[in-house]
Amino acid sequence: MSNRKQVIRARNIQKKYSGQSALSGFDLEVYQGQIMGLIGPNGAGKSTFLQAVLGLVETTGELEVLGLSPKRDRHELLKRASSITDVAVMPRWMTVGQVLKYVEGVHPRFDMNKARKILSNTNIQKDSRVRTLSRGMVVQLHLSLVMAIDAELLVLDEPTLGLDLAYRKEFYSQLIEDYFDGNKTIIISTHQVEEIEGVLSDVVFLNKGKAIMKESIDSLNTRYLELRPKAEFLEKAKSLKPIYTRTELSRPVYLYEDTEIQKLETFGEVHPPAIADLFLAIMNKTNQSEEGS
Known about the structure:
By secondary structure, the chain is α/β, with parallel strands linked by helices. It has helices at residues 46-53, 74-80, 96-106, 112-119, 135-147, 165-179, 193-196, 217-223, 234-239, 261-265, 275-292, and strands at 6-17, 20-31, 35-39, 60-65, 81-85, 153-157, 185-189, 202-207, 210-216, 224-229, 244-248, 251-257, 268-271.
């Protein structure tokens, strides 16, 4: 990544709420062009870190975003970074057209024509008031506004929470088609991991305020493999020492790390694991390590 511009640099980030650690020595580097997924259970520190990136919470440690301090340079940072959270707040009394005009007036990088073009592909009418829109439509409106801003960094914190499947799929489809161009950077936190793994370039697994794994999707797909062994090969598959076993349709599925695919293919069906399944395996391995230490 040395030839890519560094977008986020976090070193030893710490944050406590009421004596409880939300972030505990969290480190991360994000580079231009990455679509980075933050994966972790509730309370792992995902939202706290994204809020720190946007200058919404103060943390200790070193944090630099687009070469700026989120705390000292927040006004400048928000010209170059945009965000969508699970709570899209807009003045309910405004019409959609008034919202567009307002954003055009306050944000120097907003492109009105692009916003109108994106909205033309939805059922949202310019003269509709925000209070009459469904939750899904409010998220679509928010996305249209954000995608019409020429931002270098987009921060998404549970952006599709509470939306039905059709809206969620449309959201990520629009995001990739109308916003991401290979030079912009996106960092996403979501519980719907299976819906974003197809768009991610990199992932970070968080637990208890720390990063327990940081890797590119390409690297993970090479390093980890899942095997659904045929019944007659169960014992031979076990002898290769899987790092994790789960059950699917009453059959064991073994996860291996740094094992040659040729060795596994003789025993059954082999493919890279889903991100959600890999996360559970790494969490299990981390917890076992902590209990044994």
